Amino acid sequence: MKVLGIETSCDETGVAVYDSRAGLLGHQVYSQIALHADYGGVVPELASRDHVRKLTPMVGQLLDELALTGADIDGVAYTAGPGLAGALLVGAAFGRSLAWGWGVPAIGVHHMEGHLLAPMLEPDQPAFPFVALLVSGGHTQLVQVAGVGDYELLGESLDDAAGEAFDKTAKLLNLGYPGGPALSALARDGDPDRFRFPRPMTDRPGLDFSFSGLKTFALTTLQQESEGLSGDDLQRLHADIARAFEDAVVDTLAIKCQRAVRQADSRALVMAGGVSANRTLRARVDQLMAELGGRAYYPRAELCTDNGAMIAYAGWQRLQAGQHEGPGFAIRPRWPMQELVAERPPNA
Ligand code: KG4
Ligand code: ZN
Fold it and tell me: For the chain, how many structural domains are there in total?
């Protein structure tokens, strides 16, 4: 079974074809970063319009590259939420229409379920059950995963998501948007011993997170230390702050992962979402799981950030379980993942 996947929940247009026998046949991602750069964040209306421009040529090009036509596609999966309403509507309307035209079933996919299942696109797949850390620009969640659609939320961020905290702190350091990767690169030059930022909510039991205080801590440190500095000295201060910030986020995530894995008595930790591309975090969870006698699983970096491949894969899982949409389509800009069920009856 070949499934076309379409991702348009935010500022990346992603398209992919997943084959249940051969695996991921191909995928393409177009990032709108340059389009939104001047505004310091994603402008929803511009995002929607750009998805409209990109989807048709991208799907055409992908099918050409794979030497496929619509007649080879057995199902269409699109991101139905959570995300920006206009952006979701573009992908959902496009995906539903293609499926209608090709006479194949369509399925609306939960974006975070896509992230969560993305490690399954790799040859070395984790086996159920496992604990998953989902760390993206909009979500930070620890989830106990018993199977596809069987999710128990163990903890989540009470304020900023980890990626959001990276982006806001990067902005303070003039690193542009989204600044997560740039902040991480700068942190490599930073002195790990100069500043120590707090590890929020690790001094009490529980698996929730709070990252908004770290950004404030970075701002206060910057204001206190930057007076009279310029050139290399200021650059060094920025790098040291980036390092202290990244160490604090990675440490906090690792402490909570350790708790969750112990609590669930699990041997496998899956990590997914944009922030899981972070090299320091990857090294840290690898080390943590080795110490606990288990293993960490995460997809290759290009499948950590938003992409169509994860939507094609999650869509295939749903379609092969007999789920599909009715003749219409619906989007859910807000959609708690716990509302997903393993066997959802087809929407009428
Ligand atoms: O999953 P994603 O592509 O989109 C959402 O669903 O939100 O995640 C994007 C987030 C952004 O906040 C970005 O700064 C962050 O992931 N990110 C990183 C890295 N790569 C992406 N944060 C830290 N280190 C990275 N290497
Ligand atoms: Zn995402």
Answer: 2
- pLDDT tens per residue, range 251-307: 999 999 999 999 999 999 999 999 999 999 999 999 999 999 999 999 999 999 999
Q: Classify residue 193 by burial, with Cβ atoms within 10 Å: 0-12, 13-18, 19+.
A: exposed
CB 153 within 8 A of CB 112: no
* Ligand 1 centroid – CA 306 distance (Å): 9
79 neighbors 85 (Cβ within 8 angstroms) = no
From the CA of 275, which ligand is nearest?
Answer: 1
CA 40 to chain centre: 20
Q: Which atom of ligand 1 is found nearest the CA of 306? A: 3
Range of the domain at 113: 2-117+303-339
* CATH (domain of 288): 3.30.420.40
Amino acid at 261: V
Q: What is the pLDDT confidence band of residue 348, given thresholds at 50, 70 and 90? A: very low
Q: How many CA atoms lie within 13 A of 137 on its CB side?
A: 21
